[in-house]
Design brief:
Length: about 160
Amino acid sequence: MAGTVEARLAELGLTLPAVVPPLASYQPAVRTGVYVYTSGQLPMVDGKLAVTGKVGAEVTPDEAKELAKTCALNALAAVKSVAGDLDRIERVVKVVGFVASASDFTGQPAVINGASELLGAVLGDKGVHARSAVGVAVLPLDAPVEIEVQVELADG
């Protein structure tokens, strides 16, 4: 049975995807105590990247912002895989976003807003978080964006 977080996703017209399988030797998410840390989540849909390239060159900032939302959805799926229930999220502690950027692109914060805004829309005040938005030369599979999420779970 889906809880209130998944009901909110449905209200927003979104579906929690299956957990993206690891591309190498790591787990999509790990839990330690009341914290869950996700591995970097790429904007994978049905096992593939819909878009590749650098933001500010082959990928527009608006496209990248939408891809960051997909990364955040994939991160929520990874959190659920170890927490069992998204309603156990007490708060999103931190989001780290990486943007594969053209050499003159400086709009990384606006791109990562896609993930931050999605988490806020889905989790309300529990989705408010600390954040970093970093420009990088290249990401795995030539992905334009990658997101890591750290959440605190309610005890129990």
